[in-house]
Write a structure and sequence with these properties.
The chain is built from 7 helices and 24 strands. It is an alpha+beta fold. Bound molecules: magnesium ion. The site of magnesium ion (MG) has 8 residues, from strand 9. Magnesium ion (MG) binds next to strand 9.
């Protein structure tokens, strides 16, 4: 893909950021912007407003995120023959995947030329270049925006002593429990967990997530970090009542752990910036209230041991994820909750909770 200048440069527009969510877009008018009577074309005014409102939205989202205009409604009030136009765009409201902005254009004399309102789609990754194969389930590297297609998600249970105790088990009673989630369970930052109807409570489990970069089988612990591409913060959402029944009956955890949207994962921080994943503060808030907080140094099995163990049982491929277990403080979530998971030096994950409605898909 050839490098094109940003759209505002192509238009000849100068952007002036007033603050997050508010931007001025200034256009020095040239002869080709005017009709035969010297009045500025409506299309120029509309393009300037799209640029100002879009730039305001872009200023209000993380640098790695992308946005695109969904709708733009322009109301023209009068024409102008001025030398400059100044459009101001402001974000009015921001949801998880959409932002609403409004603004206006004035000429040199301060006369109001047009007003506009619009909506923008927001998403936390670089769009797929046209013609590239679609990777339906993937994680995104922080900074570069590279997508890594996710194969399987291996997860470990019972890796923090206090969580083992709160679940009513004896700490240090044997090796960690491993289970697998399907890649269809993935949700990106800014997305939503959907609560399956009639299946009891859904619990949050905040966890460090290891992203495999180099494939391997029976990887020795001493070589494990060479196979790690990076780290993310994730949520191992769990149907707790279904899991309790499964434990009682001696059944597998697949249903309790693998439902759609049960694996939210943040952007991925490269291993070179994080190290071996130990000593990082891991937290989860629900509606601003701290529910889980611990250090990854308190994992019973650290990253090298977990990669070694998982790769003995399953060949690990590039893009496989390893969820490393949750500290104590797990609990139920409800529709309307906002979950914010953070892992020191790695990243932040913000997730909403909604009831599942298969009819919407
Ligand atoms: Mg877990």
């Amino acid at each position: 893909m050839s490098e094109m200048p940003p759209f505002h440069e192509y238009l000849g527009v100068t952007l002036e950021r007033r603050g997050d969510g508010e931007v001025d877009a200034v256009l020095a008018l040239a002869p080709h912007h005017r009709n035969r009577r010297g009045v500025v074309h409506g299309g120029v005014v509309a393009a300037l407003l799209d640029t100002a409102l879009g730039a305001a939205v872009a200023s209000a989202i993380p640098k790695e995120w992308w946005c695109a205009t969904i709708s733009l409604s322009v109301q023209f009030l009068q024409g102008t023959q001025g030398l400059h136009l100044r459009a101001t765009g402001r974000v009015r409201r921001r949801g998880v995947q959409v932002a609403f902005a409004s603004g206006e254009v004035k000429d040199d004399a301060g006369r109001l030329i047009a007003t506009a309102e619009g909506s923008w789609h927001l998403w936390p990754h670089r769009p797929t270049p046209s013609g590239a194969p679609r990777a339906p389930h993937y994680v995104v590297m922080r900074g570069s925006g590279e997508r890594i297609e996710v194969g399987k998600i291996v997860a470990v249970g019972r890796n923090y002593a206090e969580h083992i105790a709160e679940m009513g088990h004896e700490p240090n009673a044997g090796p960690p429990v491993l289970f697998v989630k399907p890649s269809t369970a993935l949700v990106h930052d800014g997305g939503e967990v959907r609560i399956p109807p009639g299946m009891g409570s859904v619990h949050h489990e905040v966890e460090m997530v290891v992203v495999i970069g180099k494939p391997g089988r029976a990887i020795p612990a001493e070589a494990a970090l060479e196979h790690v591409a990076g780290y993310a913060v994730g949520l191992d959402m769990t149907l707790r009542d279904v899991q309790a029944e499964a434990k009682k009956a001696g059944n597998p955890w697949a249903v309790a752990k693998g439902f759609d949207t049960s694996a939210p994962v943040s952007l991925v921080a490269p291993r070179e910036e994080v190290g071996d994943g130990s000593g990082l503060r891991l937290t989860l808030t629900v509606n601003g209230e701290l529910r889980q907080a611990d250090s990854t140094s308190r994992m019973i099995h650290g990253v090298p041991a977990l990669v070694a163990l998982a790769s003995k049982l399953f060949t690990l491929e590039r893009g496989d994820l390893v969820f490393t277990g949750t500290p104590s403080g797990v609990g139920p979530v409800s529709p309307g909750d906002r979950l914010i998971a953070e892992l020191e030096r790695v990243g932040r994950l913000e997730i909403g909770v909604v009831p599942d409605d298969p009819a919407v898909d």
